[in-house]
């Protein structure tokens, strides 16, 4: 066999390919290429050997079959260190390929395009490309494989410096290549299992997730932990689609808190403001104007909101911005900011401003939680509360004002870590008890925070009362109505306690545990 270096180049993304081809040609490499890539290189004055010249067989089936041939895969997979392989390759007229440069049909871009059909998606499933990539990655002891155009300059620099690609680099490129094809197949599987014709259910026997790194984070929950942010959908949705308008990059904790704030503020159709600390809401307000909603959220807990995350479901205006700059906040997220609001908020250079459209709320049907040795997967609970299913179980029925307050509190308790209790007045939280080991402890925290404001207020609980003690505490604090799922063996005790104290109680039949 001759010692000529050969590169096989077949790319969908043509970025940098002409520069790569020119450099390889200057270095004396032979370039084998296909279809559009060959045309691009030739138009740039680069000498190219067409794949059909190597195989002796034309591209067929509208280009579906062009590189699936023994003279291509033998050239990639052949081990020239083995005499038997060398003899077979010589016998079949197979010349070894040393470099495979391939990137794949734009499947992700195709399915993200509005109105894209299944037929279009199918035609953008690459077959020959992944086969060549995997073959080259398998034989990385001899062959270098490049799937990322950003690697081209490094590749050329190494060839110029060393006359070839080092074993260490070939290994790194092979790992990157296998990850690339795995992600590509995962994306196809995720798309197809989301179509109406799929009969395997939402929890298939194997679960593949096409995740793409958005960015490395400075650290995780604590400085000793490393962290990164990955996007799960294409095109990007949710926090992955947010635009940072001002301030330093978001941290792991910022993103975690933002997700909690955004999920809660998205529950409301009226102007709403949600302040979050450690993934729990510390203040929620709704009103006819955003500025008033913010004031209600702030007044709910002026202490905890300090250094917190704030989310709005309307563009932030000048009046709201004027109020917000009076305190220290970590992040403010909203669908937009008026120019006047931006001018005010930009005075605080460290304040992170995030533009996050409600329409970008992720449509992912599943949520995941890592546990030792595996992952817990469940459906996302985004079904809005059905007030028509609320059941009054006490002698006294709640007033219209109480019903409105109960519905408001019920939306919020869904987003509070269990055990969870929320005390609320008119369109405003007054006290939040979150993440306690006992329900009565959560109630005492929420009621203590509300203080005198609890008189005439309502209380919501994310799960049933195992005892009547929470009702007794609520009555003593001045609560007039309670909303909870019901379903305890001792429901009658809680109902009887409400009746004794003249409280109204509503059962929803729906639990909102959040761990």
Number of domains: 3
Name the CATH homologous superfamily of the largest domain.
Methylglyoxal synthase-like domain
**Strand order across the biggest sheet?**
8-13-12-11-9-10
The secondary-structure class comes to alpha/beta
Tell me the total number of β-strands.
21
What's the number of helices? Answer: 18
Question: What sort of overall outline do the alpha carbons produce when their principal axes are compared?
Answer: elongated
Topology:
Layout: E1 6-11, H1 17-26, E2 30-33, H2 35-43, E3 49-50, H3 51-55, H4 70-77, H5 83-91, E4 99-103, H6 107-112, H7 118-123, H8 128-138, E5 144-146, H9 152-162, H10 167-193, E6 212-217, E7 227-231, E8 243-246, H11 252-265, E9 272-277, E10 280-286, H12 290-300, E11 309-312, H13 318-324, E12 331-334, H14 339-345, E13 352-355, E14 366-371, E15 374-379, E16 391-392, H15 400-413, E17 421-424, E18 429-433, H16 439-450, E19 458-461, H17 469-477, E20 481-484, H18 491-501, E21 504-507
Parallel strand pairs: 1-2, 1-4, 2-3, 4-5, 11-12, 12-13, 19-20, 20-21
Antiparallel strand pairs: 6-7, 8-13, 9-10, 9-11, 14-15, 16-21, 17-18, 17-19
Helix pairs in contact: 4-8, 8-10, 12-13, 13-14, 16-17, 17-18
């Amino acid at each position: 066999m001759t010692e000529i270096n050969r590169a096989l180049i077949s790319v969908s993304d043509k970025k940098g390919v002409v520069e790569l081809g020119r450099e390889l040609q200057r270095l004396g490499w032979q370039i084998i290429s296909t279809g559009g890539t060959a045309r691009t290189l030739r138009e740039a004055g680069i000498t190219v050997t067409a794949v059909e010249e190597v195989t002796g067989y034309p591209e067929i089936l509208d280009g579906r079959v062009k590189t699936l041939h023994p003279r291509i895969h033998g050239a990639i997979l052949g081990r020239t260190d083995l005499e038997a392989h060398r003899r077979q390759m010589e016998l079949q007229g197979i010349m070894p390929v040393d470099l495979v440069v391939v990137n794949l049909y734009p499947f992700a871009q195709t399915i993200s395009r509005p109105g894209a059909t299944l037929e279009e998606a199918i035609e953008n499933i690459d077959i020959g490309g992944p086969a060549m990539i995997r073959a080259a990655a398998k034989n990385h002891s001899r062959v270098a494989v490049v799937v990322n155009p950003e690697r081209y300059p490094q590749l050329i620099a190494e060839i110029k410096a060393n006359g070839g690609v080092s074993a260490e680099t070939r290994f790194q490129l092979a790992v990157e290549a296998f990850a690339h094809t795995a992600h590509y197949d995962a994306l196809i599987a995720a798309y197809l299992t989301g179509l109406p014709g799929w009969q395997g259910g939402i929890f298939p026997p194997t679960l593949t997730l096409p995740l793409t790194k958005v960015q490395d984070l400075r650290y995780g929950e604590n400085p000793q932990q490393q962290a990164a942010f990955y996007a799960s959908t294409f095109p990007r949705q949710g926090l992955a689609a947010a635009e940072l308008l001002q301030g330093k990059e978001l941290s792991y904790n910022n993103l975690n808190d933002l997700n909690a704030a955004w999920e809660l503020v998205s529950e409301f159709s009226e102007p709403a403001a949600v302040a979050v600390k450690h993934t729990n809401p510390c203040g929620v307000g709704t009103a006819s104007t955003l500025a008033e909603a913010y004031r209600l959220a702030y007044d709910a807990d002026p202490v905890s909101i300090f250094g917190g995350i704030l989310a709005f479901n309307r563009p932030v205006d000048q009046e709201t911005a004027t109020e917000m700059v009076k305190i220290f906040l970590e992040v403010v997220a909203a669908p937009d900011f008026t120019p006047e609001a931006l001018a005010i908020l930009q005075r605080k250079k460290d304040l992170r401003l995030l533009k996050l459209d409600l329409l970008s709320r992720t449509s992912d049907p599943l949520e995941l939680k890592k546990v030792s040795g595996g992952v817990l997967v469940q459906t996302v609970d985004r079904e809005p509360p059905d007030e028509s299913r609320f059941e009054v179980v006490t002698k006294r029925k709640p007033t219209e004002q109480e019903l409105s307050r109960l519905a408001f509190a019920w939306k919020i308790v869904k987003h509070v870590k269990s055990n969870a209790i929320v005390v609320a007045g008119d369109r405003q939280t007054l006290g939040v008890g979150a993440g306690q080991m006992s329900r009565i402890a959560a109630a005492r925290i929420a009621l203590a925070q509300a203080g005198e404001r609890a008189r005439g207020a309502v209380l919501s609980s994310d799960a049933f009362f195992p005892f009547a003690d929470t009702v007794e505490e609520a009555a003593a604090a001045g609560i007039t109505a309670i909303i909870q799922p019901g379903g305890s063996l001792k429901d009658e005790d809680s109902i009887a306690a409400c009746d004794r104290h003249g409280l109204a109680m509503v059962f929803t039949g729906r639990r909102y545990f959040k761990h």
